Amino acid sequence: MNGPDDSVTLRRDGRLASVILNRPARRNSFDLAMLGRFEEVLHELGRDSRVEVVVLTGAGTEFCGGTDLDALATLDVATTMHVQRRTAELVERWYRLEQTTVTAFNGPASGAGAVLGLASDLRVAADTCFFTFPEVTFGAPLTWSGMAILADLVGADRAKRWLLLGDRIEPAGMLRYDLVTDVVPAERLAVTAAVLTDRLLGVSPVGRSMIKRAARLAGPRFEASATDSYLGALSLAMLPAGENGHEVVTHRRAAG
Fold it and tell me: Which residue blocks in the chain are alpha helix, DSSP H?
């Protein structure tokens, strides 16, 4: 059942559940209400012993634009620090979810949006998808446990280059670096994800759980994100005098 805030919807169908980022008018970017709703969804899934596989995707034509910077611009430094702590914990909780997780990237994913999707166990993408990490262009670090996730997937050196240069990762690069297992035309994404989930549901849930638990020992170093909240708050505090959130958002869209 969905809460009164449907910015993130949770649908259950037996052993399978779908989590849908549902703010298409804002590129499915996270404001405080959406962050709180995703935390509620994680809590619901954590208490549901029937669900074995969870698919994460976005409504509309984009997966997730990351943080809603219009909303972020209204926060003071102390609140920003609190929110950054919650976002880092959210990604780690998604990564450690007991169920097997699959991301179906239905379109572009920017910054924190890419990080959240990449924290799933398996990932597929539409050919309209690409990843961007534009934070450096507007004077902010990638938070949301981003470096921990990216370094685990592609190595710290390549992750650092992507972040420093604000690189755009196209579908060919997503496949080359094993960020996704398949890239398909957008109209085939749902079927591709369904085939993958059917394969997962066809094997032992205990076996899948054991593999996830073993992988955690060699997985992301989440302690590397311990300073995320401080860095995020510091970047906000250091914005040039008179610079407002709308100017930052415009800069980000131009860069991404």
Answer: 32-46, 69-72, 77-95, 112-118, 146-154, 156-165, 171-176, 189-201, 205-216, 228-237, 245-255
pTM: 0.89
Amino acid letter at 116? L
Distance between first and last Cα of the chain: 35
Partners of residue 104 on adjacent β-strands: 124
CA distance 58 to 109: 10
As a whole number of angstroms, the distance between CA 233 and CA 45 comes to 30
Cα–Cα distance measured from residue 180 to residue 68, given in angstroms and rounded to the nearest whole number? 25
100-135 exposure pattern, b = at least 16 Cβ within 10 A, e = fewer: bbbbbbbbbbbbbbbbbbbbbbbbbbbebbbbbbbb
Starting at the edge strand that comes first in sequence, how are the strands of the sheet with 131-132 ordered?
109-110, 131-132, 168-169
Euclidean distance between CA atoms 101 and 12, whole angstroms: 14
How many other CB atoms sit within 10 Å of the CB of residue 31? Answer: 19
Tens of pLDDT, residues 82-130: 888 899 999 999 999 999 999 999 999 999 999 999 999 999 999 999 9
Q: Exposed (0-12), middle (13-18) or buried (19+): which is 84, by Cβ within 10 Å?
A: buried
Distance CA 95, CA 154 (A): 16
CA geometry: angle 92, 97, 19, nearest 5 deg: 95
Rounded Cα distance between 33 and 5, Å, is 8
